Write a sequence for this structure.
């Protein structure tokens, strides 16, 4: 039973790592968010992966800042805000149903408010 549990956590961690790597290539798709989730899943069943992610030269600092301070760097907030506003603009110009044109922007505005209320990392 323990093996199945560990396998499930590792599979989930790898899914999030894969999505994070896709986010490196695809503009607008987040990277760090998926790596945060991968580190979380790794902490439950794959400590080596968690350690690798939290000490990664590019993304490890963001993961540690989130874990220790629940902080989001201003540059990440600006980038996320820009992409969300661009998404809202594209959705409003699309032929999506009205509930999508209203629901998605409302949801993204709530996310923006939440994100900008997070502290920025302490120096």
């Amino acid at each position: 039973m323990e093996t199945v549990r560990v396998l499930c956590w590792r599979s989930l961690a790898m899914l999030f790592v894969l999505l994070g790597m896709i986010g490196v290539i695809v503009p607008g798709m987040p990277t760090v968010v998926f790596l945060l989730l991968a580190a979380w899943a790794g902490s439950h069943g794959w400590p080596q992966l968690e350690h690798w992610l939290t000490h990664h030269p590019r993304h490890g600092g963001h993961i540690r800042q989130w874990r220790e301070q629940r902080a989001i760097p201003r540059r990440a907030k600006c980038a996320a805000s820009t992409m969300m506003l661009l998404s809202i603009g594209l959705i409003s110009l699309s032929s999506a149903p009205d509930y999508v044109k209203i629901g998605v922007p409302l949801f993204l505005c709530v996310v923006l408010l939440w994100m900008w209320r997070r502290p920025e990392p302490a120096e």
Residues 74-117 form one domain.
